Amino acid sequence: MSKTKSDASGLEAPERREGEHSEPDRSGGASNPEGALRVVPAAVPDPEVAAKPARRRFAADYKRSIVAEADACQDAGAMGALLRREGLYSSHLSAWRRQAKQGELAGLTPKKRGRKTTVSPLVEENRKLVAANARLKKRLGNAELIIDVQKKLAALLGRPIPNTKFDEGNE
């Protein structure tokens, strides 16, 4: 005769052996007689995926070293082993070789993404002159403020400073 356990409905269910992992009884009781909680392993990976994956960026020194190491590969399969070890694609290697041909420093530095802007030299010079003009106007305003304060202070002390007009063309 097998060991059975009767639940509230009167039906008999097989009794579980100690250490057996299964879901708890339908009556809501715990699967083990002591009522201890089951421990879930902590090595469960997080199933959530990042909203926006991060783009990998490689330093110029790293690119140079990988290109040099790939050029030194002699054995069959050595190139594939190198790419697998570093987690790279063959397209990375071909792009880095093309960049190296264009120029060692210019080709292996990261480039800015997006539309390239071309500014004429006249527009650039105009921007510099406008900025210099604004800076000089600000300095002139500060100097005039200091002179006005000095005049008022001299008048309070009883030694007024005469107004002198400067010719803007000649100093």
Order of helices and strands: EEHHHHH
The largest beta-sheet arranges its strands as 1-2
Q: What structural category arises from helix and sheet content?
A: mainly alpha
In angstroms, what separates the terminal alpha carbons? 122 Å
> How many strands in all?
2
- Mean pLDDT, to the nearest integer, reads 77
Summed up, the helix count is 5
Overall morphology: elongated
Beta-strand percent range:
under 5%
Q: Detail the poorly predicted runs.
A: none
For the CA atoms, what is the radius of gyration? 41 Å
**Amount of helix:** 40-55%
Major β-sheet annotation = 2 strands, antiparallel
Describe the structure.
The protein is mainly alpha-helical. Among the domains are: 60-108, no CATH class; 122-164, no CATH class. 44% of the residues lie in helices and 4% in strands. The protein contains 5 helices and 2 strands. It has helices at residues 60-71, 78-86, 90-102, 104-108, 121-156, and strands spanning 4-6, 12-14. It has a two-stranded antiparallel ribbon. Strand 1 (4-6) and strand 2 form a beta hairpin. Helix 1 packs across helix 3.
Describe the structure in brief.
The protein has 171 residues and is mainly α.
What labels would you give this structure?
about 170 residues; mainly alpha; two-stranded antiparallel sheet; 2 strands; elongated
